[in-house]
């Protein structure tokens, strides 16, 4: 005989996110096609994505006012971050991890850091993972998280190890544009498989 509160939702197995997912430079949620050339690199330990709001309490600093009410709360800003560890690296990924950097031409094996940012240092990054109990390669479900105007805020790091592979820690932060400050640089898509 089951207990009243020892249950799970009826759709539990249809609403699970599965496996580590992939980090992509581009993804179209309409087609959900995966282009192998868009995979930024192999990862280890999964990926962590956070969307953290900062609020202001308008009642703070006002005598006799009730603090921490829904009427006095105002959203001040969002911080959108993606972090993880790459196990593979290319010059393009190294440039992204450095943030302000260039790949030299004609020597495309050299990545040179800069002391100033340019528009080219910001890029879109997608994390896409399998979702739902129907996750075949053709019509599988997915969760996709899109960071717009991402920039490496964790810097370039490599950790090598004896008889093991190197690890490249990554932290990317999404940025709004001054031209459209009301648009959040972050999107979430959740689509069940068919």
Would you kindly provide a written description of the structure presented here, covering whatever features stand out?
It is a single chain. This protein is mostly beta strands and 194 residues long. The strands form two sheets. Strands 1, 2, 3, 6, 7, 8 and 9 form a seven-stranded antiparallel beta sheet that branches. It is globular, with a radius of gyration of 21 Å. The longest helix has 8 residues, at 91-98. The protein is built from one helix and nine strands. The model has no long low-confidence stretch (mean pLDDT 94).
Topology:
Layout: E1 17-24, E2 43-57, E3 73-86, H1 91-98, E4 101-103, E5 111-113, E6 123-131, E7 141-152, E8 168-173, E9 186-191
Antiparallel strand pairs: 1-6, 2-3, 3-8, 4-5, 6-7, 7-8, 7-9
Largest sheet: 7 strands, antiparallel
Total number of strands: 9
What global shape is seen? globular
Helix proportion: under 10%
> Helix-strand pattern, N to C?
EEEHEEEEEE
Secondary structure category: mainly beta
Arithmetic mean of pLDDT: 94
Helix tally equals 1
How many angstroms does the end-to-end distance come to?
Answer: 34 Å
Summarize the structure.
With 194 residues, the protein is mainly beta. It contains one helix and nine strands.
Characteristic key phrases:
9 strands; seven-stranded antiparallel sheet; 194 residues; globular; two-stranded antiparallel sheet; 1 helix; mainly beta
